[in-house]
Design goal:
The structure is a homodimer.
Chain A (H helix, E strand, L loop, with lengths): L12 H4 L14 H4 L7 H9 L1 E6 L4 E3 L7 E7 L2 E6 L5 E7 L4 E2 L10 E4 L3 E7 H6 L5 H27 L2 H18 L7 E2 L4 H8 L3 H13 L10 E2 L4 H9 L5
Antiparallel strand pairs in A: 1-8, 2-7, 3-6, 3-8, 4-5, 4-7, 9-10
Chain B binds a DNA duplex through helix 8.
Chain lengths: 253, 253
DNA sequence: ACATTCAAATGATAACGATCAAGACCGGAA
DNA sequence: TTCCGGTCTTGATCGTTATCATTTGAATGT
């Protein structure tokens, strides 16, 4: 797969889809409020838009690979993306699931430290590092926003270290479901029937477990009346308080 | 311990130790080159120094606790610090060991997300978030440097997620030793007899293992001729290539 | 030198999650 | 509809690491 990408950023088609006369970033609707382009002055948005490149990508599309020259930063407009790192023998660790408004692609040594792949059909905004750097100092609010988002990412990564290093399978899954639920709420979606746009394998590689353990844990939580599994790809948080207790490591329950 | 802190930032003594006539940050010697105060103009350093507070802390001193109001950012001048998060039942995950030049204490919601504790006697520089924020926009290079350091921290955290989620005990220990060795080199110390200023318990809580497993793994690696354990708190990297192979997950070996 | 204390190493056993192996389910194509 | 490919679930067993228990060792103080 991905040998013949049906669409990519190079295709001018993507740019043509954006009405140049429209207020820049109008396309982004809600996302404007939470993405890194939020909180900017009209002038800043205009300037930012001039170096932006929008694209619609299909599901399971590799945006870039670990080690690729890091030329762009991305912002998710709509859809979902996963970031992962690999060991030489194929073991995989997913380091993040991204949704509308999330940013990715920052790198220091000219090479991405992870692979980025869409989970579902996804719209992205792309910015060139070089051009952003060139505007350095001219868009203080943007820089500050990117900084803040990076600090948030770091804190989230630290939470995940606690999960990976010290939580049980049950606690890991509970934490994961709550995180997804909260994230859905941020996007104005209901907290409870949570959509899981990723496969069991993805969940396993995010939580440091195997597919089988993830599956068994879902089944157990369902048996215990903590969650419901109405349809593939959807979870009902029947007992959110119970989930929270589990997630925080309240031994019993 | 820490019930009667023998020294702290509030004590004016710490400030008196700094010669106000000396070029600011002269005390920091080498650290100046790698800390976040590096790469600043003379004017910026002067301004930064005006809101700085230096302190010498003893070993095993709690600098702040998870949940405390986040009022300061810190930079390690000399010594070593560990950052950790706790679960309600006491399970602990160390999310980082910090050395000269490292920064910590960034927070978003007014509360530190982790506890910070010295490993050994340590000198710190402290800055008030409020004052730094007040200077926002006036010290672009400082902001950029802090951003860069945060991105680096994030990438390091992502590496650690791969370790915690997907590496074996042996691979974890190998990775840890290599990381310490590289870090020592950055500080101009030799790569090979690496100092371990932290306890086995700290290492275990950093790698998501138990004390016993860490101990056994050290013993094994020694038996296999990959490392040497000349004295408590020191490790010789006998076979660095072997360690690297292990760390990257080269199944065999 | 010896007692005391705490950290580290080692040993024995258990458990959680991994691995191996079927079988169930679901969606898409003919 | 039926077949086919995949993912997900469930079952049986194994193994790595955790847990429990003890010994060794190193540092500190008397």
């Amino acid at each position: 797969m991905n040998l013949m990408p049906p669409l990519d950023f190079e295709a001018p088609k993507a740019d043509r889809d954006i009405d140049p006369a429209a207020p820049p970033c109008r396309n982004c609707d809600v996302v404007r409020e939470i993405a890194f382009c939020a909180d900017l002055s009209a002038d800043e948005i205009k300037r930012l838009a001039s170096v932006r490149c929008h694209a619609q990508l299909p599901a399971h599309f590799t945006i870039f690979r670990e080690g690729d020259r890091a030329e762009h930063v991305y912002s998710v407009s709509h859809g979902a993306v996963k970031l992962y790192k690999l060991l030489s023998d194929g073991r995989r660790q997913i380091i993040g699931f991204l949704f509308s408004g999330d940013m990715f692609g920052l790198a220091l040594d000219d090479g991405y430290a992870y692979t980025a792949e869409t989970l579902v059909a996804t719209q992205l905004c792309r910015f060139t590092h070089r051009k952003l750097d060139a505007m350095q100092g001219q868009m203080p609010r943007l820089e500050r926003r990117m900084f803040t988002m990076t600090v948030k990412d770091l804190m989230s990564a630290q939470e995940q270290m606690l999960l990976l290093g010290r939580k049980t399978a049950r606690e890991k899954v509970a934490t994961f479901l709550l995180k997804l639920s909260r994230r859905a709420q941020v996007q104005g979606l209901p907290a409870s029937p949570v959509a899981l746009p990723m496969s069991r394998a993805d969940i396993a590689d995010y939580l440091g477990l195997t597919i089988e353990t993830v599956s068994r844990t879902f089944t157990q939580l369902k048996k215990d009346g903590i969650i419901g599994l109405p349809a593939s790809g959807h979870v009902v948080l029947t007992d959110e308080a119970g989930l929270k207790e589990l997630a925080e490591g309240a031994s019993a329950a």
